[in-house]
Design brief:
54 residues; mainly beta; four-stranded antiparallel beta sheet; ribosomal protein; ribonucleoprotein; Ribosomal_zn-bd; Ribosomal_bL33_CS
Length: 54
Amino acid sequence: MARNELRPVVKLRSTAGTGYTYVTRKNRRNDPDRMTLRKYDPAAGRHVDFREER
């Protein structure tokens, strides 16, 4: 089954300025805006907001 652009791979970059990233997929139909998730940043040693980067 081919992957389409309805559920693209997005890169989440830390807002703490450490440069740490997570990679995930999102449903563009349900979440058309930039996604923000609160995840653990091992470089900062705490949970911070990760924002979708394009």
